[in-house]
Design brief:
This protein has 299 residues and is of the alpha/beta class. 45% of the residues lie in helices and 12% in strands. The radius of gyration is 20 Å and the shape is globular. Bound molecules: nicotinamide-adenine-dinucleotide. Residues 25-31, 50-52, 55, 106-109, 113, 117, 134-136, 158, 160 line the site of nicotinamide-adenine-dinucleotide.
Length: 299
């Protein structure tokens, strides 16, 4: 049997998960992949919500593409895929969250937008509902404070693309109960992920380490240590990283890297997190990486 063709037993089995109904707030790049992940690994229903109808339309067509790819790879039958799609429901209003057991938020990386959304959801959702934010760097405890359910609030950080990457980083806030942490961990494991837990300090584990490497690579470039290509090769060939830090920065977006460095600098108050001036300069020139055609590299 070709490696890509799996038996139904080997393929994704739709598990009965600890959260039966999930509200996915944000249907952008992360939201749509997380929604697909949940519907393709569990029997849970996912309501996908966004303020932008265009984003919901795009999510629908991207989910179609993900599904088609999975069928082509032999992970699902067409019948399975129809079942998966039937579990992803387009939410037309925030009120659709009222019976959900879990809310996962993946809206814009802006603390005020997140706080505003969670405070509205707090008034809509049943008291037992757990809230999770997919933020890459914003303080979980501060976002949680916009709700009255700080005990049931935590970070659930997926990686991109969420239906493929194996890791989920969970981040309890200051008031999060062990029960909440344990339920969210269980759910991530039901989704087939390996879970790591981090305390709520800026950048958690993964963003902090990843961004510090990128920022240091930018300093190395600024100091004339070497060329972007050779700095990246140092990490790809010397350390087996799949992508060098400067290429990764261009892929993530230099504006996002700068924003995260600023969040860490402010959160720790430690100058070791100061963003490299070259990073600031490229952002101010509008060279944000791959998405604008120019960053550390030209595309
Ligand atoms: N892209 C990544 O690699 C990645 C990885 C891990 C975590 N994250 C985090 O996930 C979150 C989303 O990132 P993304 O890359 O999917 O962004 P994105 O820009 O692709 O999607 C964000 C979506 O949020 C919607 N939105 C904005 N305000 C909203 C509101 N008030 N209510 C509902 N929807 C709203 C937008 O219309 C958009 O569709 C961010 O917090 C980001 O830091 C991103």
């Amino acid at each position: 049997m070709p490696e890509s063709v799996k038996t139904k037993e080997e393929s994704q089995v739709f598990k009965k998960a600890c959260f039966q109904e999930v509200f996915m707030a944000g249907s952008g790049f992360m939201g749509r992949c997380i929604a697909y992940l949940i519907a393709s690994r569990t029997q849970s229903k996912v309501y996908i919500y966004d303020i932008s109808e265009a984003s919901l339309d795009l999510a629908q067509s991207e989910i179609e593409k993900m599904g088609k790819k999975s069928v082509e790879k032999g992970l699902f039958s067409q019948e399975d895929l129809n079942e998966i799609k039937s579990r992803i429901l387009r939410a037309s209003k925030l009120d659709d969250a009222k019976n959900c057991d879990l809310v996962i938020e993946a809206v814009a990386e802006d603390i005020n937008i997140k706080k505003d959304l969670f405070s509205k959801l707090d008034a809509i959702c049943k008291p037992a509902t757990i809230f999770a934010s997919n933020t890459s760097s914003l303080p979980i405890t501060a976002i949680a404070a916009s709700t009255k359910r700080t005990k049931q609030f935590m970070g659930m950080h997926f990686f991109s693309p969420a239906h493929i990457m194996k890791l989920v980083e969970i981040i309890p806030g200051v008031d999060t109960t062990p029960e909440t942490t344990s339920k969210v961990r269980t759910f991530a494991e039901e989704l087939g992920k390996t879970v790591i837990a981090s305390k709520d300090f800026p950048g958690f584990i993964t963003t902090r380490l990843g961004m510090v490497l990128i920022n240091e690579a930018a300093f190395a470039l600024m100091e004339g240590l070497s060329t972007p290509e050779e700095i990246d090769q140092g990490m790809t060939l010397g350390y087996n990283h799949p992508m060098g830090p400067l290429a990764l920065a261009d892929f993530v977006g230099l504006d996002i890297v700068l924003h995260i460095m600023e969040t860490m600098l402010e959160g720790f108050g430690d100058p070791k997190y100061r963003p490299c001036p070259v990073l600031r300069q490229l952002v101010s020139a509008g060279h944000l990486g791959k998405k604008t055609g120019k960053g550390f590299y030209t595309y």
